Amino acid sequence: MSTTLTSQLGGAKGDWIRCPNCDASCRERELSSGEELRCTRCGATVLQFTGRKTLQPALALSVAGLLALVLANSSPVLVFSVAGRDQSGYIITGVRELIAQGYWPIAALVFFAGILAPLLYLTSVAYVSSACCFHVRLPRLVDLIRLSEQMESWNLVPVYSIATVVSVVKLRMLGGVQWEFGAQWVLALAVISLFVQQTFNHRLVTERLISMGVEP
Questions:
Q1: Alpha carbon distances (Å) from 94 to 104, 120, 151, 163, 181
Q2: d(CA 180, CA 77)
Q3: What angle do CA 135, 51, 66 make, to 5 degrees?
Q4: Residue in 122, 127, 120, 136 with CA at minimum distance from that of residue 208
Q5: What confidence tens digit (pLDDT) does each residue in 106-134 have?
Q6: Apex CA 65: angle with CA 60 and CA 69, to 5°?
Q7: Which of 6, 114, 174, 194 has the most Cβ atoms closer than 10 angstroms to its Cβ?
Q8: In the chain, ranges of CATH 1.20.140 domains
Q9: Alpha-carbon 189 to chain mean position
Q10: Structurally, what CATH architecture does the domain formed by 56-211 represent?
Q11: What is the DSSP code (8-state) at residue 155?
């Protein structure tokens, strides 16, 4: 069981850091194995013991996620059959249909959250993780870190996967629906995205960049 330290405790470092959840000020301190620093206002974890943790899992998963993203967008997700006519459905198909019906804002939102945001998020994570793993001072690292933070909440592929399943249930009342190879890659991308969010530790990234002489 991990040891929890409140944000009111002082430590060897003595610097003030902010809670990522409620923005309360917390006194930073050196942590031992199994310890974490929690905010006394909201209870969120402010600081964790990193120890020998590495960003290699984040690098491997983000690269795998990019591959899954390409295959998910280049392969049909499902085939819809009605009145003897078959139509293959890709991720981009929904965007095109929304544009054709005049729903430009919704089409732009679906394209951004389902295709562009996952691409930007996984690319920025792979870029930053590779720089930290190989100790290479790549250009615009700080900008890519900020991009990964901004795009993390917009990576809605897991939500898209659930919405696709719900849509298939409704479409089966109108005609035949058959899952295609692309559905497996959409599912894989959703799972990989969740694991990337768990393994890409922003605090660890900051520590690695400082050790490389890069100011986050």
A1: 12, 20, 22, 12, 17
A2: 5
A3: 50
A4: 136
A5: 889 889 988 999 999 999 999 999 998 88
A6: 155
A7: 114
A8: 56-211
A9: 10
A10: Up-down Bundle (1.20)
A11: -
List, in sequence order, every beta strand (DSSP E) within the chain. 3-6, 16-18, 25-27, 35-38, 45-48, 78-82, 85-89, 176-179
CA distances from 197 to 9, 78, 154 (A): 29, 28, 12
Asked if 61 and 133 touch (Cβ cutoff 8 Å), the reply is: no
* Residues recorded for the chain: 216
**Residue at token pair 């969740």:** 194
pLDDT tens column, 27-80? 766 666 556 677 777 877 766 655 556 789 999 999 999 999 999 888 888 777
Report how far residue 50's alpha carbon sits from residue 34's, in angstroms, rounded to the nearest whole number: 10
Largest distance between two CA atoms of the chain: 73
